[in-house]
Amino acid sequence: MRRYVLMMAMMVFLGTEILALSTPVGQLTLYRIMALGGWPILLYSTIIDSRQIKIDANNPAWLHPLVYLIWLIWGLFSGLWAGSFKHWVQASFLLLVGVSSVWALVLWIENRFDWNKLARSIWWMMTGLLLWGLFEVFTNTYLLADLSKLDPYNQFALGWTRRIPVTIFTNQNDYATMLIAYISLTVVRCIQTKQPWWKVLYLVYLILTGLLIFLTDSRMILLSTLLYFIILWLLEYRIDYSAKQIIKLAVLAGFILAGVIIITPSFREKVMHLIHIVGPSMNTGDSRRMNLWRNGLVLFSQSLGLGVGAGNIEYQMQMQPFLPVDGFTNIHNWWLEILVSYGAITFVFYVFSYGMMLRQLFELRNWQPVRRRQITNVFIAFLIVYIFASITSANNIKIEWHWVYFGLIISYLRIEYQHYRNEKEGYYELINHIA
């Protein structure tokens, strides 16, 4: 099964256009087929082949697949009140595929050797997308992109600095979000290798990734990238803060930000544009995004906290455009997408799982050796910046690589906790033997 899940994880980076068939529900890709195919294989293994599925209740990493399963069940149940059956079917299908891939990775990636192979396979596929993006930028050759939307004013002909990489994605924001995940895996590869020339090559890849993120003109991803390396640096030097110190730093940062807003007229005007609902700023992308969020919160309140149903945000936005959004319907916020679509219960479970994932990683780094602790730091930094980076994409439920990536992180947690427990038990056995 290891080879099966490795292949599944790699196939997600082919997107929905390469080696895919169109169906009424959506594109049928190799990744989706393999993710769903894991369930009958699991059934065969347990019933016919009499293999036991190991779900260790004492391993805290299993919390996250269970939360995803609750999310899926609620999403399927939300079809009872969803306004658009078609949109509900499409979103439920994508959610089923995503949750299936997470479960497959957590179940069948059983040890560090398997995990390293999975991380390496995903990294190579992401590297292919990096090189593809460079090819687009330097040759002005786009194989899958719709240039009428991507370059309506023919700016790409003016030079490579005007071009925007997208590869298999619909827009540059989705591609930029993937690149920040690629940065994390590249740092992991750099930590794991002992060859100096490989470290130099990984550094080159990081520089090229930074260049492509800059060319996407995605402000949030650019800021998230800078924040990522700051957090990684702080974690590397083990600067530990108490909860009281963190609160003091947050309050201080709030006062500094408020001071900048008050003192700087241009910055104050920018913030006021985001706060105001109407006015000349209505034609800006930022104000449209804010109104999309407001509209989503209105829809959430109308649903009495149950959510409008899987995949039904866009449908409800079209039916009830409370505030002007110039025809846009995607909510452009991963967190609000979960809240508005799947309701308060699912949202609370997801946020709890996300917070526990961070907490568990912090717990792991307290006992891990240096090299493993550095890998854990990478995922801590990624999870923190992804809180902000995830709001750049129009609809994250359709960006399927993130399911595989979170499956990678959760399987890492499960394996490391198992190692910790094995080492702890071995230590106590040694003490008892000496005694």
From TrEMBL:
Query: Pfam families annotated for this entry?
Result: Wzy_C (PF04932)
- List the GO molecular function terms: ligase activity
- Residue limits of the O-antigen ligase-related domain? 205-351
Q: Does the keyword Membrane apply?
A: yes
Q: What is its main location?
A: membrane
Q: Which GO terms describe its cellular component?
A: membrane
Q: Which UniProt keywords are present, listed alphabetically?
A: Ligase, Membrane, Transmembrane, Transmembrane helix
Compartments, as annotated in UniProt: Membrane
Stated membrane topology is: Multi-pass membrane protein
Q: Which InterPro entries match?
A: O-antigen_ligase-rel_domated, WaaL-like
Q: Does the keyword Transport apply?
A: no
Q: Which domain of life is it from?
A: Bacteria
Give me the segments passing through the membrane: 30-49, 61-82, 88-109, 121-145, 175-191, 203-234, 246-267, 292-313, 333-354, 375-393
The entry's protein name is: O-antigen ligase domain-containing protein
